[in-house]
Amino acid sequence: MNLASLDLNLLVALRALLEERNVTRAGQRIGLSQPATSAALARLRHHFADDLLVRTGNAYELTPLGTALLVPCATACGLLERLFTSRAEFDPATERREFTIIASDYAIAVFGAALARALHAAAPASRLVFRQVGPEITDNTDATLSAVDGLLMPHGVVSGFPTVELYRDEWVCVIADDHPGVGDRITMDDLADLPWAVYQSVYDAPVARQLSMFGLEPHVEVSVQSFQLLPSLVAGTRRVALIQRRLADLVSPIADVRVLPCPFEAVPVQEALWWHPVHTQDAAHIWLRETAARVAADLGTATPPARA
Q: What is the pLDDT of residues 13-23, one digit of tens each?
């Protein structure tokens, strides 16, 4: 396919048509008349040799190909927007820029909040958007990263992309403050016998794989897509959970839980900011990475000491 032979304006129309599933609304969204939008749809149908949208009663539905094009089309539009908004220089004090970062609730609480304060102070006209980590980060990392400014993620889940190293953390066990079966320390037998509350994501895959290497298959009683909710799901129960120490230091004082060292040498957490190479030379992105590195330096790169 020769890109020079394509009308890239059709990409904008395609996204609007696929997302709105209505010719009139799609035209209003992109500033085209209804006849012009219909003409764009006809050209798209000819290009793909597919109807893309089919009328069903009073509404339109996507064809299988139209459904398959939804995510790649949005990704391509996002990449083009970032490509054509790139600048050789960036003045954070005056320029507007929206930075989008994929992160777990853990990374937002421990690092993202400090990064947001730094942007508030240095780039008041800019905006920081956090998106939740989803399965697409491992299913199609390249496409996902190309459409955002970065990913806050520890090593061990994705690889092959440039990074800024941020800070270290470690896994700890969290149990109810009045747990009847665990004293001042928790054992591997305890981890095998107790019910678990777990974070339901590939994000904690390295430590989960490590447990399986010990022959330990946790009895999962509750799973949730939030690290910050795990202490409250442990409090007042016999459950145990694994969370990061920095997060435990933030939430354990208000959750009626105890934080105990892991009874095994848990793989450490080395948090990093990952980005797609397409952003490497963008001045605003360079500023973001440098700001993230400074925020991490203030946070401290060493694993925090265990609390008594």
A: 999 999 999 89
Residue whose pair of structure tokens reads 């790169």 in the numeric block? 301
pTM: 0.74
The string of pLDDT tens digits covering residues 158-199 is: 889 999 999 999 999 999 999 999 999 999 999 999 999 998
